[in-house]
Write a structure and sequence with these properties.
Blueprint: E1 8-9, E2 12-13, H1 14-42, H2 57-73, H3 75-86, H4 88-105, H5 111-138, H6 146-176, H7 178-198, H8 216-221, H9 228-251, H10 257-264, E3 269-270, E4 273-274, H11 282-304, H12 311-339, H13 344-372, H14 378-406, H15 408-428, H16 430-435
Antiparallel strand pairs: 1-2, 3-4
Helix pairs in contact: 1-2, 1-5, 1-6, 1-7, 2-5, 2-14, 3-4, 3-5, 3-14, 4-5, 4-7, 5-13, 5-14, 6-7, 6-11, 6-13, 9-12, 9-13, 9-14, 9-15, 11-13, 12-13, 12-15, 13-14, 14-15
């Protein structure tokens, strides 16, 4: 359903900024917890200042992989519930409530609280994540060229939350206590939920349950079988999701293997101060905040000039650029093997390339789904997309675990080569895939 309000800020509907800040605080809570999760798991139980669970790196990365996979796989039932029963708007609300409870329970220093909190977060993200993204698409009419830019603005909100979380929650967790960090993430989610409730007037015409729609076209669309055009577009989406799995399988080394690498193998001293390992995860978010509008503007200018700038092309290029970033991690691992320590700038360069790649694939994919997904399966298809990112997270965990057997140099180099080669292979089939969209992007203006 598309919003009809004409109220705008910076050329976009006001509702975009309500969703921007909701997602910003949700990501603050999620990435804040993620920044310290693996570090908490591997911290020694005998540490007198900040004891953790004393797990091995392999066990911690295994749980990290399962957890981050399930967080996103839960988006499938979350999207289905929204399409069939609640609508997107109510699903976001209930998801936010679950997240407040989940993050708050993690502040309790008991194992039952640890697993209960993770379970509630999985359910909460599953309800909120696919539906809030679908609502962003609903703010724009079909063919509105602002849609991709709108998703980039929304994506900046995601990463503003991630940046603040890595700095603030990471610092509190590492320095003052892991459970204080978990509790701070819960406070962030509470703020997000409150501002979402306060901004409902700007979301009046978006995210409502289609089963109650009075629009004849929408009623017809949710009761009839899919036609050929819709089926072809679903096929394209599922094929593009393969790119998503590969991308996130590589990219999500950030919270696992690259996080541990920063902690154990990197010289983090700067002007006499040791930089916390969790802070390196803020680089990705910081680069997105500074580069997000520039990358979106670059692609928009290409489109206006008539140059190739389809969503699928952007996604393929994003995968290749991100893969190239892992060559810097190969250089870091080579330096570590020869000197016993690696410089911080290798991590900075890797995160820079990863960020540019992410800006070409992730917000673009979100927008692409809202263009191609059949109306009655809008949230479900968004849920499938996030589930694919979840499978990518699981792949990331498996790759991270294998570093103990094969070594960081082999893993980083292998990821780089595979992503670049795979991207160029998909590029060969791009035109055939785009023919199946039946001109979904042709009328944008």
């Amino acid at each position: 359903m598309t919003a009809t309000t004409n109220e705008e800020i910076f050329g976009h509907p006001k509702g975009l900024f309500v969703l921007f800040f909701t997602e910003m605080w949700e990501r603050f809570s999620y990435y804040g917890m993620r920044a310290i999760l693996v570090l908490y798991l591997v911290a020694q139980t005998t540490d007198p200042e900040n004891a953790g669970l004393g797990w091995t790196n392999e066990s911690a990365l295994a749980l990290y992989g399962w957890y981050t996979m399930l967080v996103y796989v839960a988006s499938i039932p979350g999207g289905w519930i929204a399409d069939k029963f609640l609508g997107q708007k109510k699903s976001v609300l209930y998801g936010g409530i679950l997240l407040v409870f989940g993050h708050s329970i993690l502040a309790i220093e008991q194992m039952w609280a640890f697993y209960t909190g993770l379970s509630l977060i999985i359910a909460g993200v599953g309800m909120l994540k696919p539906n809030i993204s679908s609502m962003v698409g609903g703010l724009y009419k079909m063919g509105d060229i602002r849609r991709d830019k709108g998703f980039t603005v929304f994506y900046i909100g995601i990463n503003l939350g991630a940046f603040l979380a890595s700095i603030i929650v990471g610092y509190v967790g590492e320095v003052h206590g892991w459970h204080y960090g978990f509790g701070l993430a819960g406070i962030g989610m509470t703020l997000g939920l409150v501002q979402y409730l306060l901004g409902q007037k700007y979301l009046a015409n978006v995210g409502n349950f289609l089963g109650n729609s009075q629009n004849a076209e929408e009623k017809e669309a949710i009761n009839r079988p899919l036609n050929k055009v819709e089926k072809d577009r679903v096929v394209v989406l599922f094929l593009s999701f393969i790119l998503v799995i590969v991308f996130w399988g590589a990219f999500e080394q950030a919270g696992g293997l690259m996080n541990i690498y920063a902690k154990e193998n990197t010289n983090r001293m700067l002007m006499g101060y040791e930089i916390p390992a969790s802070w390196f995860q803020s680089l990705n978010a910081m680069f997105i905040i500074f580069l997000g509008t520039a990358v979106a503007g670059y692609w928009a200018k290409r489109k206006l000039k008539g140059l190739l700038s389809t969503a699928l092309f952007k996604m393929i290029i994003g995968l290749i650029i991100m893969g190239t970033g892992f060559f810097f991690m190969s250089a870091a691992a080579t330096q570590f093997e020869s000197t016993g320590s690696s410089a911080m700038y290798w991590l900075v360069l890797a995160y820079l390339f990863h960020t540019v790649g992410e800006l070409c694939i992730s917000p673009v994919a979100l927008s692409y789904i809202t263009k191609l997904a059949p109306l009655k399966y809008g949230s479900l298809m968004m849920g499938v997309y996030f589930a694919m990112t979840g499978f990518g997270n699981k792949v990331a965990g498996l790759l991270g675990e294998s570093a103990s057997s094969y070594g960081e140099l082999t893993i980083f180099t292998g990821i780089a080569i595979f992503c670049v080669v795979f991207g160029f292979v998909v590029l060969l089939f791009r035109k055939k895939l785009e023919n199946l969209t039946h001109g979904a992007e042709d009328q944008e203006q």
